[in-house]
Amino acid sequence: MGHVVVKYKVTLDQPEEGAPDYQGIADTISEFDEVQAVEIKPLAFGMMFIEVQAVLGEGEGIVDGFEDSVRGVDEMVGQIEALEMGRL
User: Fold this and answer.
1) Could you tell me if 62 and 56 are in contact, meaning their C-beta atoms sit under 8 angstroms apart?
2) Domain carrying residue 69
3) Choosing a second label site near 22 at 20 to 30 A (CA), which of 3, 49, 51, 75?
4) What global pTM score does this model have?
């Protein structure tokens, strides 16, 4: 089986007060074995998103499993969108 590189845009839900802990969530995501790079980038109106680049094995359910793991990092994780995908 081969591998794929997937770049994700991870957005966080906005809390009632203050701002989400972008850095803390990004640090937790960066500890996953599959993750190659994590960067916090501006989105709009002071909001940010976390860009995650991961190398995943090809196979049924592997990408979905990784996305579920990212969603489980914190209840503030909102949407996960694949920006780019390519084979290695």
Assistant:
1) yes
2) 3-87
3) 3
4) 0.91
